[in-house]
Amino acid sequence: MFTIKDILVDAKATVGNKLLLTDITAYYRYSNGTKTDEVEGYKYTVACEDKNYEKIAVKVPGAKQLEKPDKKQYVEFKDLELYVYFFDGKYNVGARAAAIKEV
């Protein structure tokens, strides 16, 4: 039987082609359910221009690959995947990718 974790979402069709970088924040490693001081990667928040500027934060592991923009900056993700998870009584959409670059 399939579970919610087995569902694959068409990321490109969901977010569109014009992704405008709006913010960058670090995310941290957790150990035994406790947040550590170790940076695991960065979340790049993008506004999806093709989707009425709906925003989504995409986790990219490792070192920071871009700086927060001071002007309009479009980006694309390598191996972008969206997933559904259940938290605090509701379903949410998460995103992760292998890399990010300016376009």
Kindly describe this structure.
- The protein is mainly β.
- Helices cover 5% and strands 57% of the residues.
- It contains 1 helix and 7 strands.
- The strands form 2 sheets. The chain has a 5-stranded antiparallel β-sheet, with no helix packed on it. Strands 5-6 form a two-stranded antiparallel ribbon.
- A hairpin with a 2-residue loop joins β1 and β2.
- The longest helix has 5 residues.
- It is globular.
- The model has no long low-confidence stretch (mean pLDDT 93).
Counted beta strands: 7
Question: Count of helical segments?
Answer: 1
Query: What is the CA-based Rg, rounded?
Result: 14 Å
Shape: globular
Order of helices and strands: HEEEEEEE
Tell me the strand order in the biggest sheet.
3-2-1-4-7
**Biggest beta sheet summary:** 5 strands, antiparallel
Task: Give the N-terminus to C-terminus distance in angstroms.
Answer: 41 Å
How much is the average pLDDT? 93
Question: What proportion of the residues form beta strands (DSSP E)?
Answer: over 45%
Stretches with pLDDT under 50, minimum 5 residues: none
Short précis:
The protein is mainly beta and 103 residues long.
Tell me the layout of helices and strands.
Layout: H1 11-15, E1 19-31, E2 34-48, E3 54-61, E4 74-78, E5 81-87, E6 90-96, E7 99-102
Antiparallel strand pairs: 1-2, 1-4, 2-3, 4-7, 5-6
Main attributes?
103 residues, mainly beta, five-stranded antiparallel sheet, two-stranded antiparallel sheet, 1 helix, 5% helix, globular
